[in-house]
Each structure stands twice: as structure tokens, then as C-alpha cells.
């Protein structure tokens, strides 16, 4: 079975899939496209015109949540908890967490009012996640599960934002969440889920959007 993941370099949903593929030791290739000018061959095979897209031999799997579940299905061991209720609970929080990307986008692109509204929405969601997290290193304890992979792109982008802005979006008030974030970002499969220099790309993206967040950037080279 040949797997080819098609996406763009900053896509957080593709990053979720890459983390799972790395964790499950599944071989794959990755092809990056320009989302602002996708090639004709991509338009021809993508039902939605969106990434990520997974080619499995000559078949197409699309929608990020379907892709991650497919990766789990073809794995030798499940990256979900075994208990069916815990598994369903995890899936619910994964779906919940996906709305956080709207808040991150609003903070990157919006004016000061939009930035503040998005930050307020983000922190309200982080508080709910903090209250939902169980004991232990990761969401369910000591095992790295799909829900941890799902949160990794969020925590990584928050870490970049705080590095670039001298902690304008510090999550230190969320003690449990901060420790969880640190643990996730220390996982090798998370660290290798992005290309070298991706933080530079993200910094440039913030600059180029010219939103309120760009005015908070510290004067350093990335």
C-alpha cells in the first residue's frame, strides 16, 4: 500500500496526520502544493479542493478526520484508548479542538478588536480542555493518543506566537494545560512532523497578514 499525503507546509490538519503516521511507523510520501494556486492535477482529484488529501494507491481519502481515522485503521495497534466511552469522549474533544484553529486564524489576520475577541474565545476553550484533561502526562494518562496528536499543532502554533511576541498569548495561567503542551511538544514524532524552518514560515505569515498580531512581533530574526 503506497501512501501519499498532499498538503501545504503550514496545514495543521496535515500535521495531525503526519504525527500519526510517524507514531505508527507507517511509510508515506508527502507532496506540498501552493494552496493559493493549486495545480490542475490536484483540482482533478480533490472533491472539495481542500487539503489534506491522502492518496492510497489509486484511491483518494479526503477530510482530515477521515484521514486520521484511516491511518488508525491500518495501524497494527490503535492510537485511541481501548475503552469505548473514553474513545468516544476523546473523539468529541478532538472535534471540539478543531474550532480553535478559527481562533488562531482570527488572531493572525484580525485587527485589534478581532484579535481580542479571538483570544477571549481561545482562552475559554483552553479552560474547558484544562478541566477535561485527566491525570498524567498526556490527555488519558501516560499513553500518547490521537487526541494528543490533534492538539499538537495548536500547542506548537501557540508556542511560536509566544516566542515571536514575548508571550502575548501566554497560557501559563493554565497549569495543567501548560504541562500537557510541554509534554506533547517534546515528543519526537511531533517535532519531526514539520519541515525545518517552519517557524520562519509562520513568522512571515504573521507579518504578511498585517493583522494586530504583526504589531506585537519582537524585532528579532527568525
UniProtKB/TrEMBL annotation:
Q: Which organism is it from?
A: hydrothermal vent metagenome
The alphabetized UniProt keywords are:
Transferase
Q: Identify the residues that the record assigns to the GST C-terminal domain, covering every copy.
A: 83-204
InterPro entries noted in UniProt: Glutathione-S-Trfase_C-like, Glutathione-S-Trfase_C_sf, Glutathione_S-Trfase, Glutathione_S-Trfase_N, GST_Omega/HSP26, Thioredoxin-like_sf
**Where would I find the GST N-terminal domain in this sequence?**
1-79
Work out whether the entry's keyword set contains Transferase: yes
Q: What is the lineage of its organism?
A: unclassified sequences, metagenomes, ecological metagenomes
Q: What is this protein called?
A: Glutathione S-transferase-like
One Gene Ontology molecular-function label:
transferase activity
Q: Name one GO cellular component term.
A: cytoplasm
